[in-house]
Amino acid sequence: MKPNNKVWKQMGVLVLAFATLAPAWGGEDESGPVNPYSGDKAVAKEGAELFNQYCSHCHGPWAEQGERVRDLRRLRIRYGDYATETFWTTVHKGRMEKGMPVWGGVLSDDVLWRIYTFLETVQTEE
Amino acid sequence: MASVRRSLLGGVAVVALATVASSAMAQAGNEWPTYGGDKSNTRFSTLDQINTGNVKDLKVVWMHSLGSNDSQESTPIIVGDTMYVTSSTGPKYVFALNARTGEKIWTYQPELPGDYMSTVCCGLDNRGVAVANGMVFFGRLDAKLEALDAKTGKHLWTKTVADYRKGYAITSAPLIVKDMVITGMAGGEYGVRGFVSAYKQSTGELVWKTYTIPGEGEPENDTWKGDSWKTGGGSTWGVGAYDAGRNLVYWSTSNAGPWGASTRGNDSSDIGPYSNKWTSSQLAFDADTGKIVWGYQYTPHDTWDYDGINEAVLTELSLGGQKVPVMMHADRNGFFYVLNRETGKLLAADPFVTVNWASHVDLQTGRPVEAPNNEKRPQLGKWARNVCPNLIGGKNWSPMSYSPQTGLVYLPAFNMCMDIKNREEEYSPGKFYLASEFDLGMAGASGSNLAEFIAWDPVAMKKAWSIPEDYMWASGAMTTAGGLVFYGNLEGKFKAVNAKTGEVLWQFNVGTGITQSAVSYSIDGKQYIAVTAGRLKGPPSFFGKLGQKMMAVSPEGGVLVVFAL
Question: Pick from B245, B261, B20, B212: which is nearest to B135 by CA?
């Protein structure tokens, strides 16, 4: 899982390059998934309801969660630049052996982005 | 006994005869032969060596690591001088231990596919085994039932009870009845159709399978709107009880699926024909055929996740000058029920915690009278606020105990409320099917304590005494003829309490939360008390801020601790 130095350097350059342009955290590279709703408060509110409907049984209502590995308020500090990509891959493909179902084909990409827009608003720093 | 298959059991047949004879005892004594202590689920031990006078001297005599870190919910079974206990996560292990010393006799690791974890809703638990005729039986989270040789731990057979990929699982210990092993199943959050099924102990061959939700053309199928019965829930993830004299097997059923009721009926307190039978119900089955003899519905047209699987405790009570064969049941919906277990007739129902979704249960119709104007009933797009109890219930699966010595029932209760709303949702096999949004992160209904350990008088239908607990949850209970009731809490404090007065006489910190009841047994004249511990993870995960507090109280773990004088 450890990325090689070359990838790190590339990511670093990209993050620097886009730091002033990026509307939200995530720092996706050009080929990575990009949240079309990033920063949209109305979508985030709707995303919270969708999150509470589909995700809260494991991840906690409003993403409030005491079990560290399930705490999605920590995506940013855990995955850093890869947070959006990790979210996207995980919800689409699941992590069945850790209890995460495959949501690809069940929830639409639009719904998933709305949920992610909510998650962007609850990221913690510590 | 004709059912004992000598071809399979060979030399252990004689041992098996002795085992069955002792297992037929009315109450747990030297052995703890079945999940509920006896098949009436009283969890009362006739042992009295450890009693109110000397319990202060109780000490640890041995410990055993359960080898996993998810919620530990196993009730150890003691037959002869052997203890059979499972760990969580599958189970990850089935252990046979020398009950005097904890020394290993054998360890068995079932082979489970890793992806079952994504179709188990509420914790990767296992509540233990059933032992009969020289065999050990247990259910698995991948919805399989497995049989082992009790002496060697050698695998005998595995039976697929249902397809785990569609959300089916088995969490509780099976029930032994005659030459059968009977199991329930979980999956009420995945749009399953619930059932109870019975298998031949010797071969795993299916004897009967009865759906809790009637199919097309069967009576009560018209209590469902359209095809909603096909994904209507009514799972049977709790434990059964058996009345040998009446040849009746009792099992109760989970919430209706999905939680949001709009696809199942009127989505209103004005239920009309859509009561959604037999979800959130008590059922009595003919033990030989599996035919439903009677049913009683605790929560018609459920939409609060008032899952009705809590155990039935069978006894005789003196009611109005008559000895009545009853079953007692403390429901998630907050009412304590007494039913005539022969007929299913409702005899009494009173709230044992703060209840506001219904004012009372009408003893004539047997139906709860809901709060007016759907005030406490969530509907499609409409929040119901401050509904008590919340969806974890007035009581959850952790078992209660009935002491014939005091005539009291001892039960772990919750003191919590919720906001809940129904939403639209499509069914997708193997995915949560809740159609609901909820918020549980609110303070208790009465007082700041989130749980309470209650001594309940089932004749007067009121509390005799109670001990408030700061955190959900308090564990299940065990009573003994020594005048004691044992229980534990989320902090890992294991307590011995004077069953009459509620005075805490002794406690010991096992270091991680306790949810299951303790057991007691005796070997060579020495009484032991055993408890499994390992703080739960499932429910705290969906409790928001309260869940965070719960998880901070004690770390997860997996330990079996055994005490003696």
Answer: B20
